[in-house]
Amino acid sequence: MAFTSIPDSIIQVGKAITRTLWKTYVKDSLDDLNTRTLGLESTAGKIFVYDEIVKNTSSMSSYAGLDIWRAPAGFSLTDAKIYIFTVGALTGTLEMDIKKSSSPDFTAAVSVFTTKPSIDFSTASDYDVSTNAVFDSTNKIISTGDYLKLDMTSMPSNGIVGQFGVYLIGEAS
Amino acid sequence: MTTYSDFASKTRSDKLVLCHIEPQQRLILFTLDTGTVYKRATPHFVVGVFEDGNALTQASSTALNQSEFYYDINTSVLYIRTSDDSDPKTKTIVVTYRLFYANKPVDLPWDLATGDEVNYEGRLKSNSPISKELDDEQVGMTLEATTSVTFENNDGHFDEFYDILFFENKDIKLWSWSDTLALSEKQKLFDGEIQHKSFSDTRVSFRCKDFVYRLRQPVAGENFTASDGNIPERFLFTPKRRLFGQFKQLQTVPTDSVLDGFQLTGTVSGNSLTAIVTGMGTLFLDECSPKDSLFYKTELETIKLYIKTVDSDTQITLTEDIENSFNGITVQNETKRPWRKKNRTWHMAGHKLRSPSTTIIEANQENRFRVADSSDLFANDIIKVGSEDVFILRVSDDEVVLTSNLQGGLPLVGTSVTKSPVSKAYINGSEIFINRDWLITNTATNAYITLDDNAERNVAPIASIAHNLTFTNGSRNVTTSTVDLRAELEPRDWVRSDDITHTTWYEVLEVNENDLKLRVVYGGGTTTTNAQKKNVDLLDDTAIVTVDCMGQERSGNWIRTASDAVKDLLENDAGFTAINSESFNTADGETPFILSYAIPERLGANRPQIKQVINKINASVFGSLVQDSNFDLKYQVLSPDRDNTITQLKDDDLSSRNIRISSKNETKRKINAKFNPFTDKYTGDASFELYEFTNEFVDNYIGNTEELDITLYLFKEDDAKTIAQRYAFYNSLSQSVITISGKLNLALKVLNDKIMINFERLYKRFGNKDKRKVGIVNKVVNNGTDVTLEINDMGNAFNRSGVVSNDLVVDFASSDNDDKLFSSYVLDTSLEVPDINSDDEIFSGLIG
Q: What is the 3-state secondary structure (H, E, C) of B785-817?
């Protein structure tokens, strides 16, 4: 299976439309192109919105608007995680939300999640990574110029979570 | 002479017609032979025995196991051993005889194969011509074939058993043969059942039909009954849905409707002249609301109790005093607004929906992996990978790409992948989501979608109440002084405070001007904030719940294509076993289009005839159901392929030069194709998508202004476009039916056979100017000695449509007429001919 250009000589007017034309020059070439396309899209084209460590000294129970990010191109969100390093004596839940808006005014913003990524410190272990995020199938589609706002909708209590990781990526559809 | 074809081509030959008739008789009295084996002499040859309707197995000697029989051909004695070794007279024993006849006496094996020889009595006088015909040319199914078979009775042969044996609906078969041929070369003329019989002192006749008449019976299936749950009257005792293919917005049937009302948990008591109802084990706060009406029935009347307030789980205050005391009774609730815990279960189909499973064979990324079998996986499907439900973005060969990464990380090789039979669901038009809002129950006999109690709340939009409300920890009361809450909320709506640290929603029990009551106490800290609300659209018995779902799975296979569906109906509804499976497999490959056909099409409608369903499916793909030369049912989809192996008919194949040709003009300028039936998810109205195709050829050259409306039960738009354009192509020129009479060798032709016609006196064909043309057989009439064929040239469709040519075919300029008939060539872009110096081939080589 390889890509082979169709020779002009076999598609001249009056040439029989043969199986060779379809098999060798059309099917095999398309199969080859598809294999290479799959290889390309699996290694390239990831869009990283957040892959950051948040250093925190605040005892706030939530934090709306930790960051705002503007989309340079359209894509779909494919993964969201938060992760922690140490549990210590902390209790409560670390939870993040991503709100989407077509402008920096987030009054009418919508969440990209139906289930927000979170970690429950009462059951968590050191270095835990959230596994519960579920995207809203409509809101996860990001258009060029959309704004994404990172909200920490819940921070753990009984102390301060000194640092945690935020991860949000997407791919072109 | 070694083959039937050789024999049939002889104008004078010794043609034999052989006949088997298989009447039945009930036998009661047997005598004990040895042990548990019983016996009796029979007047006719026995080929089958039924015990209480179950067939016994034929053994090869008198040493019988349970549920076996043996017929001794030399002594005409039948031996049987019943299923429980009891005396046959305690059972209903019915035997099937085989009577052997021919148009002259001959000794042949009883099974016309290798069995012992019996005498075929030469009583067969005649059989009427047997006609095989499509009821709608190339789109439909073979018409029922009939024949009348007459036997000599001068010696009173039939007097003994004409009325004694059961002939009605019993099998009869006819073969054409010659004693110059091997018996294996016999040709079946007819295979059917006896419908009517007539008797005279000289003759006995049987009027017979083939098995196609069985397709008149209704499609099999179960009806909804009370045992399925609380079913609204409009659906009760109507058929459960049977689904072929795949569906968009299929309407479902509620099976836990409220109907008159639902019974409250626990029992209630109340004293006369008070307005208090007291509960025992009751859940009033959940199940009741103000303005609901409770009722119970006495022997004489129905007593109604109108709720003013719900005070606790065990106390209700009524709007009026109770007239007659009651104690420890159950009551029904007829709610003012629907209760969110009723109408949760919705029935999709009376069978299992397709839910294929496969495994991961290679994982590349958290949203990319290869699977062992991706054949039934499509974009937008929901699949469960391990324990995680995710959506498919696309499938490329065996590689599956998800819309989002698996939260569990890179999947392991061997992880199971199972497709959900439902990919989308809607309640009154709003999309609801798997796991959060709904789950599937998918068994061999029923498929349901079960809604979460909070589904309506989950999909309701959030609205602000821009006024301060005071929520108090541990209290069900919420108060305000700045807004009339009756304009904002109703009982069973939801409300929450703006407290970001306590985002729980609370269901509203009671609403007054400046306060409201929650059904449970507020769990957050006491706060006075603005609030948010959800005004919910609760499901009642008339709600519209639709699903995007897969169709039937039987024995692990998806009933996906026209070929699959027709075969399923033949085998499981009509009980056919004589099926040419290879033809169905071929049709499956040639037309893999996914159906979208629900039986019945409208919920609550009657179950249609099998024949009606098959006709609609056939019309959706240009399919036809015919009988092959062995009278096995054969499925074919019209396709343009042809090669030089197809039969060529020349003048010397005809018994008469009388070739009749009649043409009919059924050209259409526009095809209006309805496809992909669905239910409007808001109104519940039945609808279709529409594809319109205008045939420029007819517009430009024929001038016909007629349009053709067709309904295609196909799921995908691309497939519907293909079929609609084939209808346009098929209806772009007049079709000619060529009727010829020939020798018995034409009897080897069956409906839908492609034939090349090459007669001296035939007009030249459109698109080439050669006389040869390819047509298709749509009628065969055979009386055992002469055969008449009708061949439809399909408006020269075969000559005009493109095919992939043999690699050995040379350029058009060097091709002979055979090559030009069976091949296609690259056309000049502007002139649309394969030879720019000739316009003889214009309109050939089109895509069919």
A: CCEEEEEECHHHHHHHECCCECCCCCCHHHCCH
Identify the H or E element spanning B369: strand B368-371
3-state secondary structure of B745: helix
CA angle B658, B661, B663 (to 5 degrees): 170
CA distance B675 to B479: 55
- The residue behind tokens 């109205």 is B685
The answer for residues whose C-beta is within 8 angstroms of residue B97's C-beta and 6 or more apart is B22, B23, B24, B25, B42, B43, B44, B45, B46, B47, B165
Q: What is the CA radius of gyration of chain A?
A: 24
Q: What is the ipTM of this complex?
A: 0.81
> Which of A13, A17, A78 is closest, CB to CB, to B828?
A13
In residues, how long is chain B? 848
User: Inter-chain contact A42–B365, Cβ cutoff 8 Å?
Assistant: yes
In chain A, residues with a C-beta closer than 8 Å to the C-beta of B403 are: 76, 78, 135, 137, 140
- How many angstroms away from the CA of A144 is the closest CA of chain B? 19
pTM passes above 0.90: no
pLDDT digits 0-9 by tens, B371-398: 999 999 999 999 999 999 999 999 998 9
Query: Which residues of A fall within a CB distance of 8 Å from B803?
Result: 17
Q: Which helix (H) or strand (E) holds A148?
A: strand A147-154
Question: CB-based contacts of B156: which residues, under 8 Å, 6+ apart?
Answer: B201
Residues 6+ apart with CB under 8 A from A8: none
User: Which residue in the set A12, A17, A34 is minimally distant from B396, CB to CB?
Assistant: A34
The CA-CA-CA angle for residues B658, B664, B665, to 5°, reads 155
- Closest CB to B403: pick one of A62, A76, A81: A76
CB contact under 8 A, A18 and B811: no
Mutate to test the interface with B, among A40, A60, A78, A81 (most CBs of B within 10 A): A78
B31: which 2 tokens? 């005598």
CB pairs under 8 A between A and B: 103
Considering only the beta carbons, identify the residue of A11, A62, A137 that sits closest to B501. A62
pLDDT, one tens digit per residue, over B212-255 is: 888 989 999 999 999 999 999 999 999 999 999 999 999 999 99
Decide if A46 contacts A169 (C-beta within 8 A): yes
Are B175 and B190 within 8 A, CB to CB?
A: no
Nearest residue on chain A to B407, alpha-carbon basis: A131
Rounded to whole angstroms, the Cα distance separating B351 from B447 reads: 6
Place of tokens 């992996």: B369
Helix (H) or strand (E) holding B764: none
Q: In sequence order, what DSSP letters do the residues of B128-157 get, joined into one string?
A: --EEEEBSSTTSEEBPPPEEEEEEE-TT-G
Whether B397 and A34 lie within 8 Å, measured CB to CB: yes
Which residues face B661 on adjacent strands? B738
